[in-house]
Amino acid sequence: MKEDRSKRTGWRKIAVWTLSLLMLNVAVGDGMLSHASERLRDRYLNQSGTDLGELDVVKILKPPYGNTLAEYEKKGYRPASGPEIVIPANRYSAYGGEKPAEKPFGDRSHPVLEWHKESEWLEWTVDVPESGLYTIHVDYYPLPGKRLPIQRELSIDGEVPFREAERIYFFRNWVDRGQPIQNNQGDDVRPKQVEKPVWMSVPLVDGNGLYPQPFQFYFSAGKHVIRLSYLQEPMAVDQIRIAPPEQIAGYDDVKRTYDERGYKPVQNVNVKVQAEDNPYKSDPTIRRESNGDPLMEPASEGRFRLNAFGDWRWRKGGQKATWTFSVPESGLYKIGLKVGQWWGDGLPSYRQIQIDGKVPFKEFELYPFSYSRDWRIETLDRKDGEPLLVYLEKGEHTMTLTAEVGPYQPIVEALTVDTQKLADINRRIIMITGPTPDPNFDYELDKRVPDLIKDIQALADDLGVQMKALQSISDREPSIVNSLRMMKSTFERMVKRPDTIPLQLTELTNSQTNLGTWLMNLQNQPLVMDYFLISAPDTKWPNVKSNVFQKMSSTFKNFLASFTKDYTGIGNVYKGEGTDGTVIDVWVSRGREWAEIMKELAEEDFTPKTGIRINVNTLPAGQLNSGTVNTLLLAASSGRAPDVATGVDSTLPVEFAIRDASVDLTQFADYPEVAKRFLPGAMIPFKYKNGSYALPETQDFNLLIYRTDILKELGIGIPQTWEQVYEILPILQQNGLQFYYPPTYLGFLPFLYQNKGEYYSKDGLKSGLDSPQAFQAFTEWTELYTNYKFPVIADFFNRFRTGEMPIGVSNYWTYVLLSTAAPELVGRWGIAPAPGHLNADGTIDRTTGGQLQSAVIFKQSKKQKEAWEFIKWWTSTDVQTQFGQELEALLGVEARWNTANMEAFSQLPWPEEDLQALTEQWKYFKEQPYVLGGYFTPRHIDNAWNRVVLAGQNTRESLEKAVKDINKELEAKQKEFGVSPATK
Amino acid sequence: METNVEIANSPLQPSIRKTRKLKMSNHWKKVGLGYLFLSPFLILFITFTVVPVIQSMWLSFTYYNMLQPARWIGLANYSVLFLEDDIFLKAIKNTVIFAVITGPVSYMLSFMLAWIIDTLKGRMLFSLAFYVPSITSGIALSVVWLYIFSGDRYGLLNHWLLNWGIISEPVLWVTNTKTILPVVMIVSLWMSMGTGFLVFLAGLQNVSKELYEAGAIDGIANKFQELWYITVPSMKPQLLFGAVNAIVASFGVFDIAVAMAGMPSPNYAAHTIISHLYDYAFIRFELGYASAIAVVLFLVTLGLGRMAMKLFSSNDE
Questions:
Q1: What ipTM was predicted for this assembly?
Q2: What is the nearest CA distance from A753 to chain B, expressed in angstroms?
Q3: What is the pTM of this model?
């Protein structure tokens, strides 16, 4: 035992010594490092050759409407009274750009102002008789455009009064084109969304449903100038009215007036309106939906029935739908909605309910629909259970439901500020500690970062406030509250022990990501509705919650139907017999929605024009990529290939061409015409032996994405060339920040092409990577990771949000993600063309590639001409534009269609400044060619990279080995297909 | 056949015929019923296993790219495979390293675990916990493992190691050629508690309790002696099954390697025989060559299986 103990103490001694030595080493090493790097920073700070002027001054965000309104109240501004002021829109006092035309529209016969893009802004002068708060109403008529909501910016006397006024929405009016028809599988086909322009008279209100009441603007007595500036989409404007805000009475007051006027409840009336029955909608994405519950009207019975309205798509604030109904007699009615709200985690959804365009009483302004797992008939009532009765005259009426963010708005606003603060704190810490803090070093953050502890404490306190606010809204504890509580306790721990902060950097980052996600979730207000009832107050409504047996029987029916139903086909399935005419089979390797829209467009446009019908089948996305067990290949080998496949990986068409399985499109006389739709660089991978074997559908691209706020703070501009990138790197790294560049072989392409290298020799028989240019490119590329220590693997999207990687080259997908899923970054990032190499003549070569998806025709097809007609139609500008718009209307901006058709691309709703960067980048698009055995090129470029960066091999040796391997495979393949090998 | 014969016969010798027929049909009844019960399996086994194996043997002598008809080229595939293909050698090397380490380790591990769990109270619970990974899809699980082995400094393992100060910059576990194979091995070990493990568990429960009592009387002193002298010998069949299973599984490793390291893996670091086969079949469209690889793999596994059988059943049979 004794011996044992002494042994143990011995070990302990050694451990202590090693530890202290290690610490000493770390401390000293760190000190030296920071001195060296400080000098480095000084050296580079003023020499950075990038142009600072390129960065826009980050737009200082206006305060939100909530704050402005609170300020009005503080200043004692009162709602005005008196009559409204009507300004005919064509009496504008000034305009920018072209003078707008005047013409009658819709059911108004007098000429009204027609406002197109060419007129940049219009101003009206108004004489206000009395100081006070006013609302502004506009009579407008949407004119045909890109199918987007109309947007204008409002300013009063040259100043935008609050943030929301920077973007005022005027919604279009959408309806289904008719009742759903049934296809030959017995499923409902969703009718197309068409715009039905009507004159609309609306108060200016927040288009995102953040505030239920119309905006109030303060006007002092006297003359004022109201200016609307064009942002997007044309409209006709008849009048602008400035009116005192309407005061909405509470139900008690309204009830008193009912009694005074002697309104009586009606008897024995029960009007039912199916919600899916074609309401007017502000947004084409809210639409008929399908629900499988057995008590739905109509029930689905194993088929696809469009029997409900709204669902998850009806979640964005501001989306509204209006139903028309009529009642047989005048009197008081109660209203019941058969709804479901089973999304989220216990937070209610809000709707504003308007009858005949007006909110009848305060209770309907923000009506909560609480969370529940089952369908229910929600009687519109007060919290005490007394139904809210509405007086309706005999005849037609409308009911409008508008999704409102409502009470979440202040919370969202506060959390947005918190997220930004958090990002800021995070960045301030990283600038001291670097992204990988040394756990054994005390950074003394509380001393080196001023106010750090105070800020973290403030953040924790605010989270507490928001938690309370959320708890008071919902019936039970939603999970967001738990999440906030965890963050709060983390922050409080940090405050207590500042020395642990570097160890908890990840938690800061995670908190930020979490907050961002919750921010998006909080603004979702989904609701699904089956029907609504307008009934006599004593009517008893049925129970609509289906029981277990009903559910079981409906599930069983679905199960039985699954034996006979073809789930892969989309819409009508044609057999190609009798009256069907020519039918071609099209395989789509995308989601069902994509295929559905394609099918709808084809039935509407393609079949009437050409008489050719198409059958569409979906395949899981990615199944048509090369290098997977490929369904197309299997189908082709069993002789059952489709006529056309779309969504095909860009290397597959040539692989098939080599084996005589795909059709050479150049044999069609109009191929050169069609090819002009695409960038020449995008056609390269489809070429083989003078033929071309596919048309591109979508196209990825690389862009430089940067954080304006951080770059500005660091005083660096947007690098145009790689030289400039190298110059800003020391500044970034000094601050613990990094540059992102994708490490796969795709990252090699820009370097190769910008150095004027080529992948293959002219005849495509030998690798071109043995050229000095290729070696230069390979060296530059690998040095990014060896010399400049770019991170090899990093989640760029998240680190961009936290600010650790404020700049990087990434692809289209990241761009879309940032536009849709990073609400806290709005206005704080931008895109630019990717950095390039300086040419001899002073221009910059920015060549990059991007992955393509394509459409191919199979040789096995007996209808190649028809198939060609189809892909010609499919890739045409009009169809691609429409497809892109419908897709975005259906699935949101997340699904923006990056079509390869150049003209269609520019017609999609890109923000103006982004489109500039995108089109600039497109000029330099060039993909890599594909040859016999071409799959070895990316493989061995990756391998060569791996040997250099990870195994430390000599660059030249590694590249030479790669060239040797590639050439060997090329030769083998050439032998296989009887092509005479390249002469050595 | 039989009925035909009967009709054609003259009615003069009915008795002899009848007895013979009776005998035949008796025999047929006995065997036929057996075959009848066997037939569902047999039909499926022949159509989906035997025929494809034979077909792929035939294909291994042809040039076949799936899109054009197969062309007979004799032994060319094999000569290339054994004489020219250096990546195949690498694949064999990887597979053998993999098999030599994971095969026995997973085998012993599942036996030891089964043995330990067998003595525990919540046996069902534990065995489920160990069995679940093997029935879950490897691809799905690799998501979890990829998070652990992510080369990012936020990858779980990297994060810990960085925090503890063991490494100073993140290790690219599934990109660095030195670490790929070990990582794949660890993951597949974790997932290998499959059928073999269950069979061991069942086998352990089958060992007669009397044997242990008898052993105790005969002077067995501890659990390990019990294990060695009683449990192992009475579990021969299960051990054999487990061994064959482990060998086949470790030679067939592919899914996990691809999910963790990609296809093809960096510098072929996790390139196994099946990866090689897949590479040729679905990336290079050389099905004939891929079939040749398959045949070689088939023979190797068959041979090893035979060896395992010899090893484990030499005493009894």
A1: 0.78
A2: 24
A3: 0.75
